[in-house]
């Protein structure tokens, strides 16, 4: 009996000395926020090519019998010098005469045609002429590259492909400026992910975060897209060494959106090969840098 009493007392003593059970907290601590599932770049799809119909203009017969100079001026010329021999290609018996800053007369063999082409700026970057079979139709085309746009953040060429018709008239097939401002601009996009901003064209992307910081431009969240068309250049290769590539395009684009300055906020450059066939221009091998 005493042993049972001692055991019971010992059990009570041990139970009384035990630590009390911890109280339940009012609320459980919140889990760390999960990473947003939308914090990733969109699927990137290769951009094989972009096409646009040419802007076609029929050449006009000369409005008068101009006194055409035989040599180009040795230095800068003024508006009193018109008409002026701005470019010449003796091997093709072709010449480019400036009638006014926005009007040209093209001579190609026995053909003469006037066109309303802006081609002259105060910097007086003269047009360039080339003649070869551009579209593999066994007939030569006359190619004129004019430079009608210069200024702060602006420097662009215009590409004209001239076809000679059976009656000797000339047809101009020009690569439209709107193609760069609209089609190429719409093909570009901008994405900001985890504090990094990327320019995207097809399956290619470049990180422009540091560039934005260096330029101290606006908030990346306000970027609406890219705009091409103000820096455009063409390289013409009459006798290409590789892949029959006779025309190359290179252009730069500025960021469009609140806080970004047109023709100043440049953040992308694109290069491409240019093909011409049956009145249609096609950009291929498009590369973003």
Q: What's the short version?
A:
This protein is mainly β and 289 residues long. The chain has three helices and 17 strands. The strands form three sheets. Strands 1, 2, 7, 8, 9, 10, 14, 15, 16 and 17 form a ten-stranded mixed sheet that branches. Strands 3-4-5-6 form a four-stranded antiparallel sheet, with no helix packed on it. A three-stranded antiparallel sheet has the order 11-12-13.
Helix and strand sequence:
HEEEEEEEEEEHEEEHEEEE
What is the radius of gyration computed over CA atoms, rounded to a whole number of angstroms? 34 Å
- Biggest sheet record: 10 strands, mixed
Average predicted local confidence, pLDDT: 84
* Percent of sequence in beta strands: 35-45%
Number of helices: 3
Poorly predicted residue ranges: 1-23, 25-38
Distance between the termini: 96 Å
Backbone structural class: mainly beta
Q: What overall geometry do the principal axes of the alpha carbons give?
A: globular
Tell how many strands the DSSP assignment holds: 17
- Helical content, roughly? 10-25%
Protein architecture, described:
This protein is mostly beta strands and 289 residues long. It contains 3 helices and 17 strands. The protein has helices at residues 2-17, 177-187, 209-215; strands at 49-53, 55-58, 84-89, 94-100, 103-108, 111-115, 128-132, 141-151, 154-164, 170-174, 188-193, 196-201, 204-207, 223-236, 247-257, 266-277, 280-288. Strands 1, 2, 7, 8, 9, 10, 14, 15, 16 and 17 form a 10-stranded mixed β-sheet that branches. A 4-stranded antiparallel β-sheet has the order 3-4-5-6, with no helix packed on it. The longest helix is centred in the N-terminal third of the chain and has 16 residues, at 2-17. The N and C termini lie far apart (96 Å). Mean pLDDT is 84; it is low at 1-23 and 25-38.
């Amino acid at each position: 009996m005493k042993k049972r009493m001692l055991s019971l007392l010992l059990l009570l003593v041990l139970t009384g000395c035990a630590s009390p059970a911890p109280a339940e907290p009012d609320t459980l601590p919140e889990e760390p926020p999960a990473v947003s599932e939308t914090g990733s770049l969109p699927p990137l799809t290769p951009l094989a090519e972009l096409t646009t119909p040419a802007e076609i203009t029929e050449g006009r017969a000369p409005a008068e019998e101009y006194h055409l100079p035989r040599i180009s001026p040795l230095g800068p010329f003024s508006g009193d010098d018109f008409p002026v021999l701005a470019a010449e290609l003796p091997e093709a018996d072709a010449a480019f005469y400036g009638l006014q800053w926005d009007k040209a007369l093209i001579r190609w063999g026995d053909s003469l045609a006037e066109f309303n082409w802006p081609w002259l700026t105060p910097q007086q970057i003269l047009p360039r002429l080339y003649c070869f079979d551009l579209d593999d139709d066994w007939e030569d085309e006359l190619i004129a590259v004019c430079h009608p746009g210069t200024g702060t953040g602006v420097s662009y060429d215009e590409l004209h492909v001239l076809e000679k018709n059976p009656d000797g008239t000339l047809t101009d097939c020009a690569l439209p400026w709107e193609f760069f401002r609209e089609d190429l601009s719409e093909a570009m996009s901008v994405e900001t992910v985890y504090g990094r901003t990327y320019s995207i064209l097809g399956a290619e992307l470049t990180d422009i975060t540091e560039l934005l910081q260096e330029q101290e431009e606006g908030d990346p969240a306000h970027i609406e897209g890219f705009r091409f068309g103000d820096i455009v250049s063409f390289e013409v290769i009459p006798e290409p060494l590789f892949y029959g590539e006779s025309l190359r395009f290179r252009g730069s684009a500025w960021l469009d959106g609140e806080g970004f300055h047109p023709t100043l906020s440049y953040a992308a450059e694109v290069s491409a090969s240019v093909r011409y066939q049956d009145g249609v221009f096609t950009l291929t091998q498009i590369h973003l840098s």
